[in-house]
Design a protein that fits this description.
Among the domains are: about 30 residues; about 50 residues, no CATH class. Helices cover about 40% and strands about 25% of the residues. Strand 3 and strand 4 form a beta hairpin. It is elongated, with a radius of gyration of 33 Å. Keywords: Membrane, Transmembrane, Transmembrane helix.
Length: about 120
């Protein structure tokens, strides 16, 4: 803690000394203009990297959307009532304590119920 206070004090002291002394006024300013020519190959490489990263991002988001909207079959098994029920649900609608079927029915789950998620067979 003492070191932090000491370093802060030294920085403030240095800033005050620098501001009081100012810059050396005897410096002669010269203006030079340098024009850099960027090679065409580096511009193409930069634009290609930007395009590839944008395509990768779009692909990642697209795959996430596709995977979230995949319809799966959820089977709920209740050991208390000794019953099972199957529903078709989108992956994004499976939550911790609730599922929403593709028909819009919301089903609340208890801690004792067991879920089995299975991919639908595509013919």
């Amino acid at each position: 803690m003492l070191t932090k206070i000491l370093i802060t004090f030294l920085v403030i002291l240095g800033a005050v000394v620098y501001l009081r002394r100012g810059r050396n006024r005897n410096v002669k300013y010269t203006r030079t203009i340098e024009i850099e020519k960027t090679p065409l190959l580096s511009k193409i490489a930069i634009y290609a990297m930007i395009a590839v990263s944008m395509l990768a991002t779009a692909g990642y988001w697209g795959w996430g959307w596709y995977d979230d909207n995949t319809i799966v079959e959820v089977t709920i098994s209740s050991p208390i009532e000794a019953m099972t029920a199957s529903y078709q649900v989108r992956k994004k609608d499976i939550e911790e304590q609730r599922i929403t079927t593709i028909d819009g029915i919301q089903i609340r789950l208890s801690n004792q119920e067991r879920l089995t998620v299975k991919a639908l067979k595509t013919d």
